[in-house]
Amino acid sequence: MDREPFEKLVEDALAGLPKKFKDLIHNVAVIVEDYPPLPTRRQFGATDKNDILGLYHGVPFQHRGPSYGNLPPDVIFIYQKPIEHICATEDQIRAQVQDTVIHEVGHYFGFNDAELRDIESEVRAARRRPVPKKETDS
């Protein structure tokens, strides 16, 4: 997938976050890169360039007190090629981008990996539920 449509998927995933979370996100840059750099992979013990799908780097929201300010933005990295590597279809890429964005935004809010796995399971289950049909006026 070209970069522009992939970035649109990331934008859509961010736009799809619940309003109560979107309203609290400040001073965060979201960047799409092909792969995580080698120092990042080493830091997290990744043995393959496709092992990391995204990364949050910054000061989690709950640790931002009154003295928080005058700092560069936090950064959420979304790694395109590892996501594409584990997905077979564009729909799978879209879903994985959404999951990865939710995961990294969750880290921004201070959720740990276990809590995020629970949230991601709920999102995946909701995705599988059939959409109710709208009744039409006859």
Helix percent band: 40-55%
Q: Major sheet: size, sense and barrel closure?
A: 3 strands, mixed
Helix-and-strand structural type: mainly alpha
- Helical region count? 6
Number of strands: 3
Radius of gyration, CA atoms, in whole angstroms:
17 Å
Low-confidence stretches: none
Number of domains: 1
How are the secondary structure elements laid out?
Blueprint: H1 3-15, H2 19-22, E1 28-33, H3 38-43, E2 54-57, E3 74-79, H4 80-86, H5 90-108, H6 113-128
Helix pairs in contact: 1-5, 5-6
Report on the structure:
The protein is mostly helical and 138 residues long. It is built from six helices and three strands. It has helices spanning 3-15, 19-22, 38-43, 80-86, 90-108, 113-128, and strands at 28-33, 54-57, 74-79. Strands 1-3-2 form a three-stranded mixed sheet. Helix 1 packs across helix 5. The radius of gyration is 17 Å and the shape is globular. The mean pLDDT is 88.
